[in-house]
Design goal:
single chain; Aldehyde Oxidoreductase, domain 3; TIM Barrel; 2 domains; four-stranded antiparallel β-sheet; elongated
């Protein structure tokens, strides 16, 4: 679940951006007190994520608006399926419409794409995980959407775990410092609960990194053949993560190499929002 305070913060910021001084269209066209019923419908199949966020947008504008969620996050739906029904003040519904739709469409797009990746690696040991390549301010929501699609979350922020990437290693080994020794010293400074991951981009870096006692080694932009070699070198001494060059066209082959984790930035940084619509029911 996404913390309620996080959802409220995102929704209120989005509403303030979309209608900073009110909704001049609805306020000039619709008589005060007008009532409406509207239905959230799917225009293409997918996996739902952000139903509660959609409801929160409606309630932030007008707490009296009634929102009936017809599906739960994580559920699959077909084109034409009804996902939610809202009723109440027409001005309020229309003021919240775009913000609610923007969020539930994006989150459902992430969940749907994640589910495709998860299906592609079925039968292997590989987990599909997200990255920090999220929309600023929406990370908690987008990470929730990944879980709705059957994926898993990587570290949430820079504060959660150590992930030494190529730039860190370049500074760390400047002047010819031994990589294994430098990583061991860093490991000793950490608490025993802190996860330690190191990224490498060459096969010859694997053994010096593993020798430092790290928890996960990330093989970045390795070919499938190099991934297999890397998995064999690690030989169970650490978790093996594959990263870089991952797409729906390549993920099954990557998973077949025996890696434990496949991180996919595309789940959040370039996903297409799902086509959902909110239409007023005319009676």
């Amino acid at each position: 679940m996404i913390p309620a305070a996080t959802v409220e913060s995102v929704v209120r910021a989005a509403l303030a951006e979309d209608a900073p001084w009110g909704d001049v269209t609805s306020e000039s066209l619709l008589p005060e007190g007008s009532q409406a019923v509207a239905e959230l419908a799917a225009r293409e199949p997918g996996i739902l994520a952000g139903a509660g966020v959609f409801a929160a947008a409606m309630h932030a504008v007008d707490p009296s608006i009634e929102v009936e969620l017809l599906l739960a996050d994580g559920e699959a739906f077909a084109a034409g399926a009804l996902l939610a029904r809202v009723s109440g003040d027409a001005r309020g519904i229309l003021r919240a419409e775009r913000v609610g739709l923007n969020l539930v469409q994006r989150l459902s797009g992430i969940a749907t794409e994640t589910a495709r990746y998860v299906a592609a690696v079925a039968g292997t040991r590989a987990r599909i995980v997200d990255t920090r390549k999220t929309t600023p301010g929406l990370r908690a929501l987008e990470r929730h959407a990944v879980r709705c699609g059957g994926g898993h979350n990587h570290r949430f922020s820079l504060s959660d775990a150590v992930l030494a990437k190529d730039n860190h290693l370049a500074v760390l080994t400047r002047g010819g410092r031994d990589l294994t020794e430098a990583l061991r010293e860093a490991r000793e400074r950490l608490g025993h609960t802190v996860h330690f991951e190191v990224e490498v981009d060459r096969v010859d870096q694997i053994e010096p990194v593993i020798a430092a006692g790290i928890d996960t080694i990330m093989l970045d932009n390795f070919t499938p053949e190099q991934l297999r070699e890397g998995v064999a070198i690690v030989a169970g001494r650490a978790l093996v993560e594959a990263s870089g060059g991952v797409s729906l066209a390549t993920v099954a082959e990557i998973a077949a190499t025996g890696v434990d984790v496949i991180s996919v930035g595309a789940l959040t940084h370039s996903v297409r929002s799902l086509d959902l619509g909110l239409d007023v029911v005319v009676r």
